[in-house]
Amino acid sequence: MFNIYQTKAGTHSRRIRMPETHPSGGKKLPHPAARAPRIFADTATISEIKPLYQAGVISGVTTNPTLMKKAGAKSWEQAKEMAKELIKLVAPHPVNLELIELTEEGMIKQAQELASWGDNVVIKVPIGGYTAVNPSFDPFTGLKVAHALWQKDIKVNCTLVFNSTQALWAAQAGACYVSPFLGRLADYAYKNDLPERTPGNSLYWIEDHKNEKDDQNVSNSEYVASGGDRKDIGPRLIQEISAIFTNYDIHTEILAASFRNFSQLTECLLAGADILTVPANILQKVADHPLTSEGMKRFYEDSKVFEK
Ligand code: E4P
Question: With bands split at pLDDT 50, 70 and 90, how would you rate the model's confidence at 217?
């Protein structure tokens, strides 16, 4: 479990210089949580998003090809129709749509099309991994696209971020959001890291592969630079990015993604995330707690005495 005493108040000095996330809109009563982190729904399923949005639980949506497919899209045309519905439903709040083109030119063109559907569209650009799809692809495609879209005033969310280095480069390219995937990181560390080692330290990887080809010795395989418990790996990544962004007054928002449970929500809030994008099955239960339910039942029973 992420230790609360490891958290720093430094995040405040960064957030105070960023725009309000819950503006009061001219009301006499100022919003008491004007700079609170925003919560997005990590789903493309309209029937899940609608009640959460109408209840004020979320103020944005993130999607990806997997979530579009899960929501029932069987073609890109259907995915686009789904996206248009989402854009309309939550406007003016952000809808993050991921590009499926893989070349710089194709991605920029596709981003322009998606962005033309509403001012609330944010384009999700995978930061890297292009050579994994095809070794002949340019490894810098994502960064080039992110920078080109910034130049065109199109908002970018650099996705599939797994360490602070990637987050910094995304910010430098001009991304408005970076998405560290803390759940996938925790899953990976739990299954693959050797228990006797500090998790996430790429030096081990280099040591293990020192007799192999030169380029493998410089693989960007780090998760978190600071040592600690394997279970903390996700929030510690958020904390690292937050510390770096605070040090250098970087206003790119840290959009913590890939949640698996409630503890990770608390941990990411303590670690300095600006936005949490949360799956619907978790969001649906945010107002409840076993003791809240027990308390409510008791209040309800006792209130019967006041019935006429
Ligand atoms: C965020 O934008 C991503 O779509 C998402 O959080 C990925 O989560 P997963 O690891 O559950 O697929």
Answer: low
Is the bond leading into 94 cis (omega within 30 degrees of zero)?
Answer: no
Q: Is 179 in the pocket of ligand 1 (CB under 6 A)?
A: yes
Q: Which domain holds residue 146?
A: 8-18+34-183+233-285
Tell how far the Cα of 190 is from the centroid of ligand 1, in angstroms: 18
Tokens in use for 261?
């449970």
Q: Which residues are catalytic?
A: 124
Q: Which atom of ligand 1 is nearest to 159's Cα? A: 2
Query: Crossing angle for the helix pair 46-54 and 76-90, nearest 10 degrees?
Result: 10
**Nearest one of 64, 75, 72 to 46, comparing CA atoms:** 72
Alpha helix positions (H), the chain: 11-15, 46-54, 65-70, 76-90, 104-115, 130-133, 141-151, 164-173, 182-192, 202-208, 233-247, 262-271, 280-283, 290-303
What's the CATH code of the domain at 14?
Answer: 3.20.20.70
For 256, the enclosing helix (H) or strand (E) is strand 253-256
Q: Tally the domains of the chain.
A: 1
Task: Assess contact for 33 and 15: CB atoms under 8 A.
Answer: no
Residues 94-117: tens digit of each pLDDT: 999 999 999 999 999 999 999 999
Q: Is 97 in the pocket of ligand 1 (CB under 6 A)?
A: no
What pTM did the predictor assign?
A: 0.93
